[in-house]
Amino acid sequence: MSTLLITGGAGYIGSHMVLKALEANHQVIVLDNLSTGFKQAVLGGEFIEGDLKDKKLLSDLFKRYRFDAVMHFAASIEVEESVSIPVKYYENNFCNTLNLLSVMLEHDVKQFIFSSTAAIFGDPQYLPIDTQHPKHPLNPYGQAKWMVEQILQDYDLAYGLKSIALRYFNAAGANPSGKLIERRKKPTHIIPIVLQAAQGIRENVKIFGTDYDTPDGTCVRDYIHVNDLCDAHLLALSVLNHLPRSTAYNLGNGKGFSVKEVIETAEEITGKKIKTINAPRRAGDSPCLIADSSQAKKELGWTPRYPDVKTIIEHAWRASWVHDACFS
220-221 and 257-258: which strand pairing? Predict the structure, then answer.
Protein backbone atom coordinates (compact mmCIF):
# COMPACT_ATOMS: atom_id res chain seq x y z
CA MET A 1 0.00 0.00 0.00
CA SER A 2 1.30 3.43 -0.99
CA THR A 3 0.31 6.92 0.06
CA LEU A 4 -0.57 8.74 -3.15
CA LEU A 5 -1.15 12.37 -3.99
CA ILE A 6 -3.58 12.55 -6.91
CA THR A 7 -3.78 16.02 -8.40
CA GLY A 8 -6.88 16.80 -10.41
CA GLY A 9 -8.59 13.94 -8.60
CA ALA A 10 -12.02 15.57 -8.81
CA GLY A 11 -11.93 15.56 -12.60
CA TYR A 12 -13.10 12.88 -14.99
CA ILE A 13 -10.05 10.61 -15.24
CA GLY A 14 -8.69 11.66 -11.84
CA SER A 15 -11.87 10.69 -9.99
CA HIS A 16 -11.89 7.28 -11.66
CA MET A 17 -8.25 6.88 -10.64
CA VAL A 18 -9.06 7.77 -7.02
CA LEU A 19 -11.69 5.04 -6.93
CA LYS A 20 -9.33 2.48 -8.51
CA ALA A 21 -6.50 3.38 -6.13
CA LEU A 22 -8.78 3.04 -3.10
CA GLU A 23 -9.99 -0.34 -4.34
CA ALA A 24 -6.32 -1.35 -4.55
CA ASN A 25 -5.92 -0.33 -0.85
CA HIS A 26 -3.76 2.73 -1.40
CA GLN A 27 -4.08 5.75 0.87
CA VAL A 28 -5.21 8.63 -1.32
CA ILE A 29 -4.96 12.38 -0.89
CA VAL A 30 -6.74 14.39 -3.57
CA LEU A 31 -5.78 17.95 -4.53
CA ASP A 32 -8.07 19.83 -6.91
CA ASN A 33 -9.00 23.50 -7.38
CA LEU A 34 -12.49 22.52 -8.66
CA SER A 35 -12.16 24.80 -11.67
CA THR A 36 -13.47 21.94 -13.81
CA GLY A 37 -13.84 19.09 -11.30
CA PHE A 38 -16.58 18.16 -8.86
CA LYS A 39 -16.00 17.42 -5.19
CA GLN A 40 -18.85 14.89 -5.13
CA ALA A 41 -16.94 12.84 -7.74
CA VAL A 42 -14.24 12.09 -5.13
CA LEU A 43 -15.59 8.89 -3.60
CA GLY A 44 -13.01 8.43 -0.86
CA GLY A 45 -9.63 9.41 0.50
CA GLU A 46 -8.99 12.91 1.80
CA PHE A 47 -9.94 15.87 -0.36
CA ILE A 48 -8.06 19.18 -0.28
CA GLU A 49 -9.18 22.13 -2.35
CA GLY A 50 -6.18 24.02 -3.66
CA ASP A 51 -4.22 25.13 -6.68
CA LEU A 52 -0.83 23.96 -7.92
CA LYS A 53 0.32 27.54 -8.36
CA ASP A 54 0.25 27.87 -4.55
CA LYS A 55 3.68 26.54 -3.60
CA LYS A 56 3.11 27.20 0.12
CA LEU A 57 0.02 25.01 0.07
CA LEU A 58 1.99 22.32 -1.75
CA SER A 59 4.87 22.53 0.71
CA ASP A 60 2.51 22.30 3.70
CA LEU A 61 0.83 19.29 2.09
CA PHE A 62 4.12 17.46 1.60
CA LYS A 63 5.12 18.24 5.19
CA ARG A 64 1.85 16.77 6.47
CA TYR A 65 2.04 13.49 4.53
CA ARG A 66 4.82 11.14 3.50
CA PHE A 67 3.86 10.58 -0.10
CA ASP A 68 5.28 7.57 -1.90
CA ALA A 69 4.26 8.82 -5.33
CA VAL A 70 2.33 11.52 -7.16
CA MET A 71 -0.18 10.96 -9.96
CA HIS A 72 -0.63 14.21 -11.84
CA PHE A 73 -3.95 14.71 -13.68
CA ALA A 74 -4.52 18.42 -13.07
CA ALA A 75 -4.51 20.23 -16.41
CA SER A 76 -6.52 22.28 -18.86
CA ILE A 77 -7.47 20.01 -21.76
CA GLU A 78 -9.42 21.85 -24.49
CA VAL A 79 -7.39 21.86 -27.70
CA GLU A 80 -9.36 24.66 -29.39
CA GLU A 81 -9.16 26.87 -26.30
CA SER A 82 -5.42 26.29 -26.06
CA VAL A 83 -5.02 27.87 -29.51
CA SER A 84 -6.99 30.99 -28.56
CA ILE A 85 -5.73 31.30 -24.94
CA PRO A 86 -2.26 29.72 -24.95
CA VAL A 87 -1.13 31.48 -21.77
CA LYS A 88 -3.67 29.48 -19.76
CA TYR A 89 -2.15 26.23 -20.99
CA TYR A 90 1.48 27.16 -20.53
CA GLU A 91 0.80 28.47 -17.02
CA ASN A 92 -1.47 25.66 -15.83
CA ASN A 93 -0.08 22.65 -17.67
CA PHE A 94 3.61 23.57 -17.68
CA CYS A 95 4.46 26.13 -14.99
CA ASN A 96 2.22 24.59 -12.35
CA THR A 97 3.69 21.16 -13.07
CA LEU A 98 7.15 22.64 -12.45
CA ASN A 99 5.87 23.94 -9.11
CA LEU A 100 4.73 20.46 -8.19
CA LEU A 101 8.00 18.83 -9.25
CA SER A 102 9.99 21.43 -7.31
CA VAL A 103 8.12 20.71 -4.09
CA MET A 104 8.41 16.98 -4.65
CA LEU A 105 12.19 17.27 -4.85
CA GLU A 106 12.31 19.48 -1.75
CA HIS A 107 10.60 16.66 0.15
CA ASP A 108 12.48 13.80 -1.49
CA VAL A 109 9.46 12.34 -3.31
CA LYS A 110 10.81 10.90 -6.53
CA GLN A 111 8.05 8.82 -8.10
CA PHE A 112 5.79 10.58 -10.58
CA ILE A 113 3.13 9.41 -13.02
CA PHE A 114 2.24 12.04 -15.58
CA SER A 115 -0.99 12.37 -17.51
CA SER A 116 0.22 13.08 -21.04
CA THR A 117 -1.53 13.02 -24.39
CA ALA A 118 -1.42 11.84 -27.99
CA ALA A 119 -1.59 15.54 -28.91
CA ILE A 120 2.21 15.66 -28.53
CA PHE A 121 2.57 13.83 -31.87
CA GLY A 122 0.72 16.24 -34.15
CA ASP A 123 -0.20 14.99 -37.61
CA PRO A 124 0.97 11.39 -37.75
CA GLN A 125 3.74 10.49 -40.16
CA TYR A 126 2.63 6.86 -39.95
CA LEU A 127 -0.05 4.78 -38.23
CA PRO A 128 -0.40 3.37 -35.68
CA ILE A 129 1.63 5.84 -33.63
CA ASP A 130 4.33 4.21 -31.53
CA THR A 131 6.23 5.76 -28.64
CA GLN A 132 9.15 6.77 -30.87
CA HIS A 133 7.02 8.65 -33.38
CA PRO A 134 8.29 12.23 -33.98
CA LYS A 135 6.72 14.84 -31.71
CA HIS A 136 5.32 17.89 -33.49
CA PRO A 137 2.37 19.24 -31.43
CA LEU A 138 -0.19 21.24 -33.40
CA ASN A 139 -1.47 23.26 -30.44
CA PRO A 140 -0.35 24.72 -27.09
CA TYR A 141 -2.11 21.94 -25.21
CA GLY A 142 0.06 19.30 -26.83
CA GLN A 143 3.14 21.52 -26.74
CA ALA A 144 2.88 22.11 -22.98
CA LYS A 145 2.51 18.39 -22.33
CA TRP A 146 5.52 17.60 -24.52
CA MET A 147 7.56 20.25 -22.70
CA VAL A 148 6.79 18.50 -19.39
CA GLU A 149 7.82 15.13 -20.83
CA GLN A 150 11.17 16.61 -21.83
CA ILE A 151 11.62 18.20 -18.41
CA LEU A 152 10.97 14.83 -16.77
CA GLN A 153 13.86 13.28 -18.66
CA ASP A 154 16.16 16.07 -17.43
CA TYR A 155 14.90 15.70 -13.86
CA ASP A 156 15.65 12.00 -13.88
CA LEU A 157 19.21 12.60 -15.07
CA ALA A 158 19.87 15.48 -12.66
CA TYR A 159 17.81 14.56 -9.58
CA GLY A 160 16.90 10.89 -9.84
CA LEU A 161 13.18 11.64 -10.12
CA LYS A 162 11.66 8.59 -11.80
CA SER A 163 8.59 9.14 -13.92
CA ILE A 164 6.27 7.43 -16.36
CA ALA A 165 4.35 9.59 -18.83
CA LEU A 166 1.17 7.93 -20.04
CA ARG A 167 0.04 9.29 -23.38
CA TYR A 168 -3.71 8.95 -23.58
CA PHE A 169 -5.43 8.77 -26.89
CA ASN A 170 -9.19 9.45 -26.44
CA ALA A 171 -10.33 8.63 -22.90
CA ALA A 172 -14.00 7.73 -22.78
CA GLY A 173 -16.61 5.64 -21.00
CA ALA A 174 -17.47 5.35 -17.32
CA ASN A 175 -17.00 3.04 -14.37
CA PRO A 176 -19.13 -0.05 -15.14
CA SER A 177 -20.69 0.16 -11.67
CA GLY A 178 -22.32 3.46 -12.56
CA LYS A 179 -20.69 5.21 -9.59
CA LEU A 180 -18.92 7.72 -11.80
CA ILE A 181 -19.59 9.39 -15.13
CA GLU A 182 -17.76 11.77 -17.43
CA ARG A 183 -19.16 14.91 -15.85
CA ARG A 184 -17.84 18.25 -17.10
CA LYS A 185 -19.07 21.77 -16.64
CA LYS A 186 -18.59 22.30 -20.36
CA PRO A 187 -18.33 18.97 -22.23
CA THR A 188 -15.97 19.03 -25.21
CA HIS A 189 -15.46 15.30 -25.85
CA ILE A 190 -17.58 13.66 -28.52
CA ILE A 191 -19.09 10.76 -26.56
CA PRO A 192 -20.61 12.76 -23.66
CA ILE A 193 -21.81 15.39 -26.16
CA VAL A 194 -23.49 12.74 -28.30
CA LEU A 195 -25.12 11.13 -25.26
CA GLN A 196 -26.39 14.52 -24.08
CA ALA A 197 -28.07 14.87 -27.45
CA ALA A 198 -29.60 11.42 -27.04
CA GLN A 199 -30.94 12.48 -23.62
CA GLY A 200 -32.38 15.70 -25.02
CA ILE A 201 -30.01 17.87 -22.99
CA ARG A 202 -28.71 19.44 -26.20
CA GLU A 203 -30.42 19.85 -29.55
CA ASN A 204 -27.66 18.63 -31.84
CA VAL A 205 -24.06 17.57 -32.26
CA LYS A 206 -21.64 19.65 -34.30
CA ILE A 207 -19.24 17.74 -36.52
CA PHE A 208 -16.12 19.87 -36.82
CA GLY A 209 -14.81 19.13 -40.29
CA THR A 210 -16.20 16.71 -42.86
CA ASP A 211 -13.44 17.04 -45.47
CA TYR A 212 -10.51 15.33 -43.74
CA ASP A 213 -8.52 12.66 -45.59
CA THR A 214 -10.33 9.85 -43.77
CA PRO A 215 -12.82 7.25 -45.04
CA ASP A 216 -15.90 9.36 -44.26
CA GLY A 217 -14.27 12.81 -44.05
CA THR A 218 -14.52 13.14 -40.26
CA CYS A 219 -11.74 12.89 -37.67
CA VAL A 220 -10.71 9.40 -36.60
CA ARG A 221 -9.73 8.70 -33.00
CA ASP A 222 -8.62 5.76 -30.89
CA TYR A 223 -11.02 5.54 -27.92
CA ILE A 224 -9.83 3.98 -24.67
CA HIS A 225 -11.99 3.10 -21.68
CA VAL A 226 -11.26 5.21 -18.61
CA ASN A 227 -11.02 2.10 -16.42
CA ASP A 228 -8.38 0.66 -18.72
CA LEU A 229 -6.44 3.89 -18.37
CA CYS A 230 -6.61 3.62 -14.59
CA ASP A 231 -5.41 0.01 -14.71
CA ALA A 232 -2.37 1.20 -16.66
CA HIS A 233 -1.64 3.78 -13.95
CA LEU A 234 -1.66 1.13 -11.23
CA LEU A 235 0.68 -1.03 -13.28
CA ALA A 236 2.95 1.95 -13.88
CA LEU A 237 3.01 2.63 -10.14
CA SER A 238 4.08 -0.95 -9.47
CA VAL A 239 7.18 -0.65 -11.71
CA LEU A 240 8.34 2.87 -10.81
CA ASN A 241 10.69 1.59 -8.11
CA HIS A 242 12.44 -0.68 -10.59
CA LEU A 243 12.87 1.68 -13.54
CA PRO A 244 16.44 2.14 -14.75
CA ARG A 245 15.29 5.40 -16.33
CA SER A 246 12.09 7.37 -16.82
CA THR A 247 9.94 6.39 -19.76
CA ALA A 248 6.64 6.94 -21.56
CA TYR A 249 3.89 4.72 -22.94
CA ASN A 250 1.08 5.18 -25.44
CA LEU A 251 -2.34 4.06 -24.23
CA GLY A 252 -4.96 3.22 -26.82
CA ASN A 253 -6.70 0.24 -28.39
CA GLY A 254 -5.03 0.36 -31.79
CA LYS A 255 -8.28 0.89 -33.67
CA GLY A 256 -9.77 4.13 -34.90
CA PHE A 257 -13.39 5.24 -35.13
CA SER A 258 -14.60 8.32 -36.96
CA VAL A 259 -16.90 10.93 -35.49
CA LYS A 260 -19.71 9.67 -37.72
CA GLU A 261 -19.11 6.07 -36.58
CA VAL A 262 -19.29 7.14 -32.93
CA ILE A 263 -22.60 8.91 -33.57
CA GLU A 264 -24.03 5.90 -35.42
CA THR A 265 -22.95 3.56 -32.60
CA ALA A 266 -24.55 5.86 -30.02
CA GLU A 267 -27.79 5.88 -32.00
CA GLU A 268 -27.75 2.07 -32.01
CA ILE A 269 -27.16 1.84 -28.25
CA THR A 270 -29.58 4.57 -27.15
CA GLY A 271 -32.28 3.95 -29.73
CA LYS A 272 -32.35 7.70 -30.34
CA LYS A 273 -31.86 9.65 -33.56
CA ILE A 274 -29.11 12.22 -33.03
CA LYS A 275 -29.29 15.42 -35.04
CA THR A 276 -25.95 16.59 -36.44
CA ILE A 277 -24.72 19.88 -37.90
CA ASN A 278 -21.66 20.14 -40.10
CA ALA A 279 -19.26 22.83 -38.87
CA PRO A 280 -15.82 24.11 -39.93
CA ARG A 281 -12.68 22.36 -38.76
CA ARG A 282 -11.33 23.32 -35.35
CA ALA A 283 -7.84 24.76 -35.10
CA GLY A 284 -5.28 22.24 -33.85
CA ASP A 285 -7.20 19.06 -34.71
CA SER A 286 -5.34 16.17 -36.33
CA PRO A 287 -7.22 14.07 -38.92
CA CYS A 288 -6.36 10.67 -37.47
CA LEU A 289 -4.78 9.41 -34.23
CA ILE A 290 -4.40 5.68 -33.60
CA ALA A 291 -2.11 4.21 -30.95
CA ASP A 292 0.49 1.51 -30.99
CA SER A 293 0.37 0.45 -27.33
CA SER A 294 2.55 -2.65 -27.71
CA GLN A 295 5.27 -1.25 -25.46
CA ALA A 296 2.82 -0.74 -22.56
CA LYS A 297 1.44 -4.24 -23.08
CA LYS A 298 4.92 -5.78 -23.13
CA GLU A 299 6.60 -3.82 -20.33
CA LEU A 300 3.65 -3.13 -18.00
CA GLY A 301 1.67 -6.28 -18.70
CA TRP A 302 -1.28 -4.06 -19.58
CA THR A 303 -4.26 -5.50 -21.44
CA PRO A 304 -7.35 -3.35 -22.07
CA ARG A 305 -10.49 -5.05 -20.78
CA TYR A 306 -12.95 -2.88 -22.73
CA PRO A 307 -11.43 -2.30 -26.17
CA ASP A 308 -14.68 -2.07 -28.14
CA VAL A 309 -16.12 1.41 -28.67
CA LYS A 310 -19.64 -0.03 -28.37
CA THR A 311 -18.89 -1.20 -24.82
CA ILE A 312 -17.32 2.16 -24.00
CA ILE A 313 -20.44 4.00 -25.13
CA GLU A 314 -22.75 1.49 -23.39
CA HIS A 315 -20.98 2.06 -20.06
CA ALA A 316 -21.16 5.82 -20.48
CA TRP A 317 -24.87 5.68 -21.41
CA ARG A 318 -25.83 3.35 -18.57
CA ALA A 319 -23.79 5.30 -16.02
CA SER A 320 -25.39 8.60 -17.03
CA TRP A 321 -28.83 7.25 -16.15
CA VAL A 322 -27.72 5.40 -12.99
CA HIS A 323 -25.89 8.48 -11.79
CA ASP A 324 -28.83 10.79 -12.49
CA ALA A 325 -31.15 8.45 -10.59
CA CYS A 326 -28.94 7.61 -7.60
CA PHE A 327 -26.11 10.08 -7.20
CA SER A 328 -27.53 13.52 -8.03
Answer: antiparallel
